[in-house]
Amino acid sequence: MIKAAILGATGYAGAELMRILSGHPHVDVTYPASHSYAGKRFSDIYPGMKGICDMELREDDISKAAKEADVVFLSLPAGIASAIVTPEILSEAVVIDLGADFRLHDENVYQTWYKTEHHAPSLLSEAVYGLPEIHRNEIRGKRLVANPGCYTTCSIMTLYPLVKEGLISTDGIIIDAKSGTSGAGRGEKLSSLFCEVNESIKAYGVASHRHTPEIEQELSEAAGRDIVLQFTPHLVPMNRGILAACYAHLLKGVSDEDVEKAYSMYADEPFVRLVSTPPETRYVKGTNLIDISYTIDKRTGNIIAMGAIDNLVKGAAGQAVQNMNIVFGFDETEGLQRAAGCPF
User: Fold this and answer.
1) Which pLDDT score, from 0 to 100, does residue 344 have?
2) pLDDT one-digit tens code per residue, 216-257
3) pTM for the whole structure
4) DSSP helix/strand/coil, 8
5) Of 26, 172, 289, 299, whose CA is between 20 and 30 Å from 340?
């Protein structure tokens, strides 16, 4: 058994971590923490966990957490993790950051998009981008894992085979993505109120969403050249889920068989399902799965690749647990073998 700490345990991603780890056969959550609810029981905040996790929440204190746990999960707003993670902390515990502070390799890019100072640029080279299907070998044995964003996980994985194999033009890629409201976090926001969201759909962060450089970074590494793309997220009136529709132009001479062979890189991945029809978020709800499909439009010469995930699981907590499993040498699927919450 290993001991786990979760800082930010009562946010949506943190609570999902609590739910998943409460059923993990090799993990004991010993330090659940929440600045807002310290001293209260977790099940008082989330009554659905009554009898499953009634632990008392502690204060967010990474120094204490690192001394008492083998792995510390950080589910905190941007700018905090880089201020509290130090080499000393990493010498005591593995840190898996669900926030954005260690995802981008360039501190200047981070500061430009997140409008906040990066307090530990020297640690950026120590961090690994925790997308297991692409960086599994680098994740093994790492002390600092940057858990990818939700939009980025869905978008990168959907496009990666096409970019890696050089099947599409890297100019003019468009990603049109939709997310449920839990992606905005649990904090009270006018724009997330039921009456503001229900019976409506809206674009936001147009040409400015913070996940854009993350997607560009990973796809640029796959292509071996800088990629600049168009990413537009939308808010839809559902709790969970992300659907990303990605548009690109196939290069001359690329066949259906070439595309099929490219996506075969995922054939043995336990959390990737290649599906024959456009994916739906309900079929991955509550799971660590990503469903991917594609359609080649012979008329336009374009490919429309689509991916669907649960933004709180594969897009956050589930992927964090997947990364933890890899770091500690557990079976990668431990604690994550759940069917969809809506199988029909």
Assistant:
1) 60
2) 999 999 999 999 999 999 999 999 999 999 999 999 999 999
3) 0.96
4) coil
5) 26
> Rounded distance, CA 313 to CA 22, Å?
14
Torsion of CA 289, 285, 208, 124, to 10 degrees: -40
Domain containing 270: what range? 151-309
Last residue of a domain, one of 126, 160, 180: 126
Residues with a catalytic annotation lie at: 150
- Give me the residues paired with residue 111 across strands: none
For residues 203 and 176, is the Cβ–Cβ distance under 8 A?
Answer: no
Phi, psi dihedral angles at 5 (to 5 degrees): -115, 145
- The DSSP 8-state label assigned to residue 210 in this structure reads T
Six token digits for residue 9: 């345990």
Domain count, the chain: 2
Residue for token digits 């890696």?
164
Question: Does 295 share its domain with 228?
Answer: yes
| CATH value at residue 6 | 3.40.50.720
Q: With a cut of 70, which residues of the chain have pLDDT below it? A: 342-344
Give Cα 215 to chain centroid, integer Å: 12
Phi-psi bin for 166: left (phi > 0), alpha (psi -120 to 50), beta?
Answer: left
Distance between CA atoms of residues 217 and 223, nearest Å = 10
Degrees (nearest 5) of the Cα angle 132, 280, 166?
50
Residue 152: closest CA among 174, 181, 177:
177
User: Do residues 234 and 179 make contact, with C-beta atoms less than 8 angstroms apart?
Assistant: yes
Residue 253: which CATH number?
A: 3.30.360.10
Tokens 């839809």 map to which residue?
236
In a domain, 137, yes or no: no
Per-residue pLDDT reduced to its tens digit, 51-101 = 999 999 999 999 999 999 999 999 999 999 999 999 999 999 999 999 999
Same domain for 159 and 54: no
The tokens describing 218, both together, are 């990973």
For residues 160 and 305, membership in a common domain is answered with: yes
